[in-house]
């Protein structure tokens, strides 16, 4: 690397609610900040969020992202489209690569979110847009109050999820992708959760129905997929960050990983995948990161 190569104060991997909020804070601290983003925020799928603070009339995910971009952009953040595939350490700085491109940074924030595992149907994105298929009960189960709700996934993963959904509706049905074991079937029965027989999901453009192999068809107002997710945590575990048994990156109370100067924020860290949580993580990480970088008081760089 050339000795003169630019070194960013912070490189943020991921431009969703977490990464863009961190960028806004850092730019407002007069820090140089680059966001490298693959452009697949989970928020792009939100048909309308009704629990995002400050939007009592709801806001569509793409519109929220647009406003977050606009906000960070107004303070001069630099955004590069790209998929980061490697982070390494060189001479006390971080080197972040996306294919043939690379950047140097004093600190790194990993804000790359999660990638949902989805049911294996071509109509999945259309069903999400129609709110027929949902991915987050905390986000939008209120809007399914007293409706008929299905929960789809491995039986052992469904029961606690279904019990939470009972907060919103008495009609919660399990749509397991496997037979599960006797203990899980007993737990479902004890909780009063009906299990639909093996079958397929169908989507008619408005609602999802479960069709049992034996032929019975059950129409559902909303189906929650509960299939797990993947992350890009290996980008930072490769340089020493640690991951919990649950697969979440371990961070301290300032969102810093086990690697000094490397932070993780948003869905990639928390089991509570919420925009408000992403915002909070971003604010905490950005303030701590700023305090740890070389001082930039105005009188040091602009003597009177
Ligand atoms: C259908 C749906 C409805 C939802 N509704 C709500 C709601 O109503 N209220 C609420 O609070 N939350 C809701 N959520 C959750 C919310 O979208 C997430 O909590 C939020 O988007 C998390 O922000 P994030 O920045 O951590 O991750 P993301 O928004 O997922 O952004 C991560 C970004 O990093 C990028 N990226 C990933 N890997 C790399 C890489 N290697 N290099 C570069 N970039 C990378 C991704 O492409 C993406 O742009 C919903 C989610 C879904 C799917």
Automatic annotation (TrEMBL):
Question: Which InterPro entries does UniProt cross-reference here?
Answer: FAD/NAD-bd_sf (IPR036188), FAD/NAD-binding_dom (IPR023753), Ferredoxin-NADP_redctase_2 (IPR050097)
Transmembrane domains' residue ranges: none
User: Has keyword Oxidoreductase?
Assistant: yes
- Alphabetical list of SUPFAM superfamilies matching this protein: FAD/NAD(P)-binding domain (SSF51905)
FAD/NAD(P)-binding domain residues are: 9-147, 216-282
Q: Name one Pfam family in it.
A: Pyr_redox_2
Q: Which UniProt keywords apply?
A: Flavoprotein, Oxidoreductase
Reading the lineage from the top rank, the first entry is Bacteria
Respond yes or no to whether keyword Oxidoreductase is given for this record: yes
Q: PANTHER family under this entry?
A: THIOREDOXIN REDUCTASE 1-RELATED-RELATED
Q: What is this protein called?
A: NAD(P)/FAD-dependent oxidoreductase
